Amino acid sequence: MTSRASAIILAQRPQGETGAMVRLLTPDQGLVAAYVAGGRGRQMRAAMVPGNRVAAEFTIRPGSQLPFARLELERSLGALITEPLPAAAIQWACALAAAALPERQPYPALHAALGGLLDAIALAPSARGWVSGLAAYETLLLSQLGYGGGAPPPPAPDWAGQMAQLETLGRRIAHYLLAGPKSDVMGARTLLTERLQRME
């Protein structure tokens, strides 16, 4: 069985000599884990970056529960890897979704929100252009997973207020979504908030 989807790469790790296991967020299938043959090879290396948007073709082979995926790069954020603040934001946003979301449950609003946030990180001249989008994304994720309700709070008008919003969201994420074995993922958020605080 074969299916196709537009997807955002959330995480990847080596598998075997040249392959990679990848976690992708799709609009209709939600979080999908798949094996990419040659994912660590020279041709695929540029595509296998968290935050990149890809066209994914999934194939489930008889007797295998894990799909095989072929990926074609649609939009790359690889140029931001060397920029400390955007790189930390992309890493955190993707790692949060990879760790918190259950597999194979669609969250189209989250897929759209993450895509919008990544676009803002890529295009905004500074973090002041996307930090409110990060807070909105985190708020939506908490709500979609049952740990929030009602409308999200309006964006704070100043930088100190935005940092306070992120601090509150961070405590809720650590408590509800990333407790126990997943707590090490919060290290990516700590790095991001430390870098954001230097902008004050």
Walkthrough of the structure:
This protein is of the alpha+beta class and 200 residues long. It has two domains: 2-75, Beta Barrel (OB fold (Dihydrolipoamide Acetyltransferase, E2P)); 80-197, no CATH class. Helix content is 40%, strand content 22%. It is built from six helices and five strands; from the N terminus they run E-E-E-H-E-E-H-H-H-H-H. It has helices spanning 42-45, 84-100, 108-123, 131-144, 159-176, 186-197; strands at 2-15, 19-26, 30-36, 53-59, 68-75. It has a five-stranded antiparallel beta sheet with strand order 3-2-1-4-5. Strand 1 and strand 2 (19-26) form a beta hairpin. It is globular, with a radius of gyration of 17 Å. The termini are far apart.
Features of the shown structure:
alpha+beta, 2 domains, five-stranded antiparallel sheet, 6 helices, 5 strands, globular
